[in-house]
Amino acid sequence: MKLLQRTTLYYLLYSLFIFGIGTILFYIFIKIILLDGIDEAIHQEKVQLVANLNYEKIGEGLQPSKDVLIMPAEEVDVEKDKYKTIPIYDSLSKESVDYRQLTSYHKNGANWYKVTIRQPLAEAESLLNSILPVEIGLFLILLGGVLLMNRFILAKIWQPFYVLLDKLKKYNLETTKVIPYESTDIIEFRDLNINVEKMTERIYKDFLTQKEFNENSSHEMQTPLAIIKNKLELIIQSKNLTEQEMIHIQSIFSAVKRLTLLNKGLLLLSKIENRQFTQKENVNLGELLQSIFNHLEEQINDKNISTEIEIKSKDTLLTNRVLIEGLLNNLISNSIKHNIQNGRIMAELTDKHFIITNTGTALNFPADEMFERFRKDSAVENSVGLGLSIVKKICDFLDYKIIYIHQDGLHTLVINF
Amino acid sequence: MKVLIIEDEKELRYDMVSYLSQEGFLCESAKNYSEAIDKIGVYEYDCYVVDIMLPGGTGLDLVKAIKSQKHQGGIIIVSAKNSIEDKITGLEIGSDDYLTKPFHLSELNARIKSIIRRRSFNGNNEIQFNEIRILPDSRQVYINGKEVALTAKEYDLLLFFIANKGRVIPKDSIAEHLWGDYMDQADSFDFIYTHIKNLRRKLVQQGAKDYLNTVYGIGYKFQSE
C-alpha cells in the first residue's frame, strides 16, 4: 500500500468515526433542546389559558381549539404536570402525526379540571430529519477534500521524497557516484537529502579506495612475481640439484603460476570496473568460438570429452573484442575444467544467445553464489575461483544477461546478447 | 649480438642480463629513462628490451627515440600492465614484440632470438642444429636433408627448445609459449607431455639423435651431450 493511500485511509476512518459519533450526539442534543422549547411554549399557553379560563362554561368539558381540551376531573386522578410525545391519527392526511402533549390538573374552588394541551411536532421533526442529510453532505465534502488534499497537496509535499526514492532506485556506483543534496523547505526531507548525499559520498569513496587497492596491489605484485619466476629459472640451470630440491622448485613454480593467474584475473576485473574496455568493433563470434575450441583441443582430448558445436549465427556482433574473448574463453575453459572424464560439451551460438552445456558433478555450494569471487569447486585443484566472476562482470558491463541452469547432471550457462 | 635491457627493477635487470649473457649475448643495461637515452645516443644494439614504466619517462617514448635514430635493432616491450592499449601503441610505433610481466626468461630468450633472426637475415634464413635444419619462413624441418612433417605445436616446440638449447626449460614456460593466454585456465600439463613425446618420436624416427632430456619434476632440456 502506498504512503498516500495509507494516510488517506486513516484520515477517512477517523473522520467517519468522528462524524458518526458527532451526528448521533448532535441529533440527541437538538432533540432535547427542541422538545424543551416546545414544552416551555405549551406551558406558557397553559398558564395563560388557566388565568383567563371562564369556569362556568366548562360544564362537561370545553375545547376552545383543536389542540386544547379542558375536562372536569376527580381529585384522586390528580397528577403533576406531565409532558409526553404521542402519535395521533390524522384522518385528513391518513397518517399518524407526533404531538407533544401536556397534561395538567387545576383546582378552581372545590373542583378539579384536567387541561390537555398539545402541539404538533412535524416542524421539529422535519428540522431533526434534515440534520442527517446535512451531516452526510458535510462528510462527503470532507471526504472529497481529504482525497483532493492528499492528491495535490500531500503529493506535492512528499515530492522530494519520491524524487530521492527514484534516485536511490537508479543508484549505480559506476555511473551515478554520489546522489547530490537537493534543497527543499521541509526539514525532514532536507535532513534526508543531506544524509543520503553524505552516505553515498562515503560509499563511493570506499568503492574507489577498494578499486584502487585492487588495481595497485595487483600491479605491485607483478614485479615480485617476475623476480621469483626468473630466479627459479636461473636456479634450475644448476647441475647440482637433488631430486627433492627439484620437486620443491616445481611446487614453487606452480604456486607462482597460481598467483600469476589470480593476479591477472584481479587486474582484468579492476580494468572492467574502471571502464577501460569501451571500444566496440564487429566481432565474428562463430570464428572466435571455433578458434578457442581449437586452442583448447588438447585439454578437451585429455579428458576425452566429446564436443558438439552449433554455430547458427552468420552475423557479426558489435562488442568489445577483448571482453567477449575473455567471456567465451572463460566459459569454455570452465566447461572443460569442471567436466568429467569422457564427458560432453554442447555449445550453441545464434544471433541472440550463446548457450554452453557440459556434463559435470553437482555444485558443492548454492547456485546463486557461483558468480561470487573466490567461489570455487574445491575438487578442482588449480582453480583460483575468478573465472565466473569475470564472466559475470563482463556480462554486466556489456549488458548481457547470464542464466545458470542445472538439470539432469548437466550444467548450462545461457548468455543473452 | 648486443642486447640493451632497460628495466628499473634491479633484480629483474640482473636476472635478464645473467640469463641472456649465458646465451652468448653481449648484454648492457639501463636502469632509467635518461640512462637509456644516453646509451641509445652512443651505441646501436641488435635488440632492445624496454620496460614501459620507467623512472623519468615511459618506454613508449624510448621506442620512438630508438626509431628516430634509425636503429635497426628489434624492440621488445615489457609491461606490468598487460593492457591491450600499450601493446597496440607499442606495436604501432615500431616495436616488434610485447611481453607481460611476469614472463619466463626462456620465453624472452626465444623472442629475442626470433626477432634478431628475422631482422638480420631479412627473413631469409635458416636454423641449423647438428643434423636438424629449420626453415622458419616456410616452417619446414629437415633431418639429414629429409623433411619431417610436424604439427604446428610440435614445430613451435622444437624451435623453442633449440632457442633455449642447453637450458632447463620449466614446464609452464613451455605451456605458456605454446598456448599463451589460453593456458590460463588449464589444470594439467599432461598434454604437453603428449606433444613432446610425439616430437621426440618423429625426430628420432627420421634419424636424429635424442636430444631431449627430461629434468625430473621440473621440465625439459634440449642438448647435444
Give the topology.
The complex is a heterodimer of chains A (417) and B (225).
Chain A: H1 3-51, E1 62-65, E2 68-73, E3 82-90, E4 95-108, E5 111-120, H2 122-129, H3 131-157, H4 159-169, H5 187-235, H6 243-273, E6 281-283, H7 285-295, H8 297-302, E7 306-311, E8 317-319, H9 321-337, E9 344-349, E10 353-359, H10 387-398, E11 401-407, E12 410-416
Parallel strand pairs in A: 7-9
Antiparallel strand pairs in A: 1-2, 2-5, 3-4, 4-5, 6-8, 9-10, 10-12, 11-12
Chain B: E1 2-6, H1 10-22, E2 26-30, H2 33-42, E3 47-51, E4 53-54, E5 57-58, H3 59-68, E6 74-79, H4 84-92, E7 97-100, H5 105-120, E8 127-129, E9 132-135, E10 140-143, E11 146-148, H6 152-163, E12 168-170, H7 171-179, H8 190-205, E13 212-215, E14 219-222
Helix pairs in contact in B: 2-3, 6-8
What is the ordering of alpha helices and beta strands of chain B?
EHEHEEEHEHEHEEEEHEHHEE
* Unreliable stretches of chain B: none
Question: Which structural class fits the helix and strand makeup of chain A?
Answer: alpha+beta
Strand content of chain B: 15-25%
**Strand proportion of chain A:** 15-25%
Side-by-side strand order of the widest sheet of chain B: 2-1-3-6-7
Q: Could you tell me the number of beta strands of chain A?
A: 12
Q: How far from one another are the termini of chain B?
A: 25 Å
Overall 3D form of chain A:
rod-shaped
Number of helices, where a helix is a run of at least 4 consecutive DSSP H or I residues of chain A: 10
Q: Ranges of chain A with pLDDT <50 over ≥5 residues?
A: none
Report the mean per-residue pLDDT of chain B as an integer: 86
Mean pLDDT of chain A: 85
- Strand order, main sheet of chain A: write it out: 1-2-5-4-3
Oligomer: heterodimer
- What characteristic shape of chain B results from the CA principal axes? elongated
- Taking all Cα atoms into account, the compactness measure Rg of chain B is 18 Å
How would you sum up the major sheet of chain B?
A: 5 strands, parallel
Q: Work out the helicity level of chain B.
A: 40-55%
What is the straight-line distance between the termini of chain A? Answer: 37 Å
- Structural class of chain B, please? alpha/beta
